[in-house]
Amino acid sequence: MNTIPIDMDLTEKLTILSDAAKYDVACTSSGVDRKGNGRGIGNSIAPGVCHTFSADGRCISLLKILFTNECIFNCAYCLNNRDSDVRRASFTPDEICTITLEFYRRNYIEGLFLSSGIMVSPNYTMELIYQTLHRLRTIHHFNGYIHVKALPGADPELVERTGFLADRMSINLELPTADSLHKLAPCKSRNTILKPMRQIQNRITDNKQELTVYRKAPRFVPAGQSTQMIIGATPENDFQIMSVAEGLYEKFSLKRVFYSAFVNVNGNSMLPALPGGPPLLREHRLYQADWLLRYYHFKVSELLSEERPDFNIFLDPKCDWALRHLEYFPVEVNRASYQTLLRVPGIGYKSAERIVKARKKTCLSFDDLKKIGVVLKRALYFITCSGKMMYNTKLEENYICENLMRDKTQIPKDIREGGYQQISFFDRELQSEFQLTDAEILT
Amino acid sequence: MYIFLCKDSIDGIFTGVYDAWASRYGHQNIALTTHTPDNYSLFDEYISVPCDYDKSAKVARTLYNRMGDETYQEIYQAASALETCHSRKSIDKADAIYKTIVLALSLPDASKVLHYLGNPYINRAFQLSLCTGNEAHHLLGFLRFQELENGILFAQIHPKNDVLPFLGEHFSDRLPEENFMIHDATRNLAVLHPQGKRFFITDTKELNHEMLQRLSPQEMEYRRLWRTFFDNIAIEARINPALQNQNLPKRFRQDITEFQ
Ligand code: SF4
Fold first, then answer.
1. How high is the pLDDT of residue A38?
2. To bridge A170 with a disulfide, which of A49, A122, A226, A427 should be the other Cys (CB 3.0-4.6 Å)?
3. If you compute the radius of gyration of chain B from its CA atoms, what whole number of angstroms results?
4. Is A424's pLDDT higher than 70?
5. For the ranges A23-37, A110-124, B228-242, which has the lowest average pLDDT?
6. Nearest by CB to A42, which of B112, B174, B234?
7. What is the rounded distance in angstroms from the CA atom of residue A313 to the CA atom of residue A422?
8. pLDDT tens, residue by residue, B42-65
9. How many domains does chain B have?
10. Do B13 and B93 belong to one domain?
11. Of residues A74 and B85, which shows the higher confidence score?
12. Within this chain, do residues B151 and B89 fall inside the same structural domain, yes or no?
């Protein structure tokens, strides 16, 4: 392992430690509304704020860095693992404070996202992370957003102390099943990941109690907990992945699950080469399905099954579901319940809300729906306004499917134009019979 | 028709609303506009409305009390929107706001007025409010401060809609201990926030441009660091200019450090 040059300058450190942090996909600053306190610096607004977009088109909201890219672990998919020959660097807590504050004042960022490799031991590194947050919050009175990683294997007491300084905490699940984790990240285990996840969940629940009794009680991870899974490095199918996500939402009360299309950074022979590039369209479908779980009251079992374990890559999951459930349609927009409206392709949850409000005042026409924000070119096959369809369309699977497929937006423009290749054989090959081994852990 | 010609600003439009209401010509005989027509119609009478802050404040107070904070904010945002937000064929901004207010005050619960999205005037007001709201939200993130030699944080923006009041609120809450200035170069107006005090909006005809050129000694250092971060955080295997352009409209870039 290379030794750290003591006097490495800040630009060099930032280069190494932002480069090493970029595969963590979460960069949102959402989930907490906090006014400024009239002194110090910083506040936070619940919807989150994007400050810029990097060359890959992703939102940059937080200063996303590692504390160090030194690591004693050997996760196969990670460029910082102990066997990699990469340049190493570590910040000091003060350096991170300075960059965070100076970036924040200039409105480059909404806050800090601090993750880390594991230097010396999980506790040793977690303590440094704690020190950094402590300085930011108490010495510099920084009141902006902080997302921090809990390191697998760190002492629960340290995790708890850190959580009282952070807005969001996350521990990456890394891979959808314990089997894959065991193969690719032998230093981690489902246990060292799920235990702290449970701990944080319980602490959040207790904290809500404390806050009802004593409004000024210190807040523990007010923006909740999130996690991330790498997609396409291992053979799990979409059904397995979404079932795990559903379990995490229901049993661990996670705020968000992130999906990260696998990028082969180190040519490790245990991992797929993915000549077609990272599986971006698959990742996109998983995010769409994730929305359906969180905002549209869908269950994974309605979208996928053992017999049909993967999403249709040509259609978004909601259109796909609707096509297989034509018995629910057409829906009369002026009468259908909010829940029913949510299931119509082309009607988003905001449009559904607006429809419910607006139809109390007038009987809605197709023109009104358009103004409200309904995507009619999708919805028109599935709805009536005052008993009439928009055009003389047939309620027939093949017919609608053909028409929907003609709509290019089924595959987002940037993926279409980014030279997306259909799921490579390699992906398909990998998705052999892989059993959902993790069900017990999540129940 | 009696057409009330008002100044294109919150106070201008609210004064127009006050005068139109007080005129008692009957709401159906009244229209409001903010632009002088190209050809005057013989059948219309034009009444030009001088901006009056007392009248405007009265309208604002009434609306706030009757509609509640949330709906009032929407109306305020709609009035702050650029008139040509949509095609020229669409309903006049000032008229949309006037008709929305008339309807609101006729309802038992004025806060529900925006539910009438089927009504073209309400719909227009709602769309205008969205325009301002979206742009203001974008700028909460896209705005960049630079530190001047005298320690002031200075930002320049070129917004379509009049978003300064929203930005002033947000950044005063966020940076209470800073002296900062946000310059709307399209309108020649600026938010000024003196450390520890409330912000105010002022015009910038006398702005000292030479002062703006003198940066603090560390300013370039932090810009460089930021560039370093910005360039490094992108994943090479996912480089996607189409997505970047879609998410960060080109018109904002002239004022964003990392794109200069
Ligand atoms: S713990 Fe694993 S994923 Fe994290 S830095 Fe170390 S090797 Fe990489």
1. 83
2. A226
3. 21
4. no
5. A23-37
6. B174
7. 8
8. 788 999 999 999 999 999 999 999
9. 2
10. yes
11. A74
12. no
> Which tokens go with A351?
């449009």
Which domain does B183 fall in, by range? 143-259
Determine whether the interchain pair B247/A107 forms a contact, defined as Cβ–Cβ distance below 8 Å.
Answer: no
Token pair recorded at residue B120: 């073209």
Q: Look-up: residue for tokens 């099943």?
A: A177
Verify whether the Cβ–Cβ distance A414 to B141 is below 8 Å.
Answer: no
Contact B232 A106 (CB under 8 A): no
Ligand 1, pocket-test mutation among A80, A149, A265, most atoms within 8 A of CB: A80
> What residue type is A331 in one-letter code?
V
Query: Residues B211, B255: one domain?
Result: yes
**Whole-number Å distance between alpha carbons of A289 and A296:** 10
The band of A435, judged by pLDDT with boundaries at 50, 70 and 90, is very low
Say yes or no: B77 and B99 in one domain.
Answer: yes
Let me know whether B52 and B165 are in one domain: no
**What pLDDT score does A418 carry?**
56
Q: Is the CB of A118 under 6 A from ligand 1?
A: yes
Q: What sign does the CA torsion over A174, A175, A181, A186 have?
A: negative
Q: Which of these three, B136, B155, B183, is where a domain ends?
A: B136
Find the mean pLDDT for residues A262-286: 89
Give the mean pLDDT of chain A: 89
Cα(A7)–Cα(A10) distance, rounded to whole angstroms?
A: 9
Is residue B32 classed as helix, strand or coil in its secondary structure? strand
pTM equals: 0.90
Same domain, B87 and B53: yes
pLDDT of residue B85: 45
Residue where a domain terminates, one of B107, B136, B165: B136
